[in-house]
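Reader question, answered in our methods column.
A reader sent in the components of a multi-part assembly and asked whether the whole thing could be modeled at once rather than chain by chain. We filled in our standard form and ran it. Here is what they sent:
COMPLEX SIZE: two components
ENTRIES:
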Amino acid sequence: MAMPVVDFLYEFASTYSYPAAMRIEAVAEAAGVAVRWRPFLLGPIFAEAGWTTSPFNLIPAKGRNMWRDLERTTAAMGLPFRRPDPFPQNSLLAARIATALPDDGRRAAFSKEVYRAEFGEGLAISDPEVLGAILKRLGIEPAPLIVAAGSDQVKQVLRATTDDAKAKGLFGAPSIVTADGELFWGNDRVEQAVAWATKPT
Amino acid sequence: MAMPVVDFLYEFASTYSYPAAMRIEAVAEAAGVAVRWRPFLLGPIFAEAGWTTSPFNLIPAKGRNMWRDLERTTAAMGLPFRRPDPFPQNSLLAARIATALPDDGRRAAFSKEVYRAEFGEGLAISDPEVLGAILKRLGIEPAPLIVAAGSDQVKQVLRATTDDAKAKGLFGAPSIVTADGELFWGNDRVEQAVAWATKPT
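And here is the structure of the entire assembly that came back:
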């Protein structure tokens, strides 16, 4: 029997995608589940709801609780935490580079390092130098990736992933979708999503 | 040393308050923590955000996921689930009766039965007969409670709880607040809130 697979749909500007990205592989591996890393853009989905920025900015009390909760969550995981300014960060270049990388471990490694830079160190992930330094640390030559990130093919794939996310009912990130289309939203649902994927059908 | 206490702030129209109400006592008891049951109204807080109904209605994809997630959550807990129509229910009378009841076990018992009626059986909790039947089943004479629910004193206490909730930064329900003012939001944070309450200060 083939290994069950879940789609991990994440947005680089999304706060709770940080802890989820850092732990989904371990949770999935323990259950014998494979993870497809699928970066997408929340902007077009939020725009349809009439939002021009993160709901965490639109509802200040919700935002205050989120930052405090993220601080508690990352502390419990032993992860660094530093709030980036501005929030949300422009995530387009990071999403395009992640899309350009093959999903063979390199996309996951890059994505986790982007989250650590953004929410662990408070760095600007819209800065090509920040992203280039991450690629270098991973042993990947930055220049070809930056070029690929600007290609029509990568833009198209990222747009298709975002359209697919919308079609699957996504309204936030991170979200996890199982092969049978079950949608789980948030860092708090990583375990349930992985368990769902291993259910006998 | 006095037993640590958490404030459990709940709204009868709130979907995730149902599973939280059903399990918070067991979680708290296992940790040696007492629970204060504090019903409040989300309406005035949502109104300040410019919302005229539940965000689950305003963002249809978010609402679809919530109903499905609540179905999964209640199934995992062995609780009945039935979606009430309309949603949200008018929760004012239930909140006033709960406020009128003493927080000595009777308020908790009534509140849990209201949630079971609403989200387990899909009953209208704005119906005085539904609420009266619950009181009767609990061995409480309904008539004096219905009268007390309409008193200025009860209205004032409920308003004060709602004002206090807002002052503590609440933006949704259920929320749990510890004695040192730490705010935890959602059924997913029951364990963390209770653990926080037992931390040495």
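What stands out: Chain A touches chain B at residues 49, 58-59, 61-62, 64-65, 68-69, 72, 169-172, 183-185, 188-189, 192 (CB under 8 Å). Chain A has a mean pLDDT of 96.
Send us your own complexes using the same form.
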